[in-house]
Design brief:
The protein is an alpha+beta fold and 194 residues long. Helices cover 36% and strands 31% of the residues. The protein folds into two domains: 10-113, SH3 type barrels (Roll), CATH 2.30.30; 140-193, no CATH class. The chain is elongated and about 135 Å long.
């Protein structure tokens, strides 16, 4: 009588011949609340360690929702229901750990070209209102600056006072200096001509 050490079909797993560069689909039994279901994990085999001996493992890497995930599966685990080789690639390395850095470089390169932007239509509504308020403030300031004196004159016909607005042209010190210089230049020309 032959003793059964493991419920796994060892010969099938040995003949499968998993190696680095293979894309595999691993069907794994998962027990949740007393029920057993199958969960698949498909990815690239990065490494096979310890070959076909009892403690042999293989590392599978997959990108799930943009995040790299690696799982290490024991080759003869009874939790693994089935292993399928989906695609076999020719590689020149026994361990493909460089894929981690390669993927990270590509992600960094993509992120370099992207910018975080948080723009909403509400932002444009707020800025439009602020711009309108600023324009109104500027107009009132210019009107206030142009009105210097206002005199009330009685209007004999209407009985309501009439407002007369006089604007004065105030000059800045720079403008005054320019005006004085131009007057001096004009005076010199008159003296030279005479």
């Amino acid at each position: 009588m032959q003793n059964v050490i493991t419920p796994v079909a060892v010969n099938e797993r040995v003949q499968l011949g998993i190696r680095a560069g293979d894309t595999v689909r691993v069907h794994q039994k998962v027990v949740e609340k007393g029920k057993t279901r199958l969960q698949t994990f498909e990815g690239l085999v990065l490494a096979v360690k310890h070959g076909h001996e009892a403690g042999g493992t293989f590392t599978v890497r997959a990108t799930l929702s943009g995040i790299g995930v690696e799982k290490i599966f024991p080759l003869y685990s009874p939790v693994i229901e089935k292993i399928e080789i989906v695609r076999r690639s020719k590689v020149r390395r026994a361990k493909l750990y460089f894929i981690r850095e390669k993927v990270a470089r590509e992600v960094r390169r993509q992120l370099r070209n992207m910018r975080m932007v948080n723009i909403s239509t509400d932002d444009f509504k707020q800025t439009a209102v602020e711009e309108d308020e600023k324009v109104l403030e500027d107009e009132t300031e210019t009107m206030d600056a142009s009105i210097v004196d206002a005199e009330v004159v009685d209007a004999p016909d209407e009985g309501a006072p009439e407002v007369v607005v006089e604007t004065s042209e105030e000059t800045t010190p720079v403008e005054e200096a320019i005006a004085e210089a131009s007057e001096e230049a004009a005076d010199r020309k008159k003296e030279e001509v005479a």
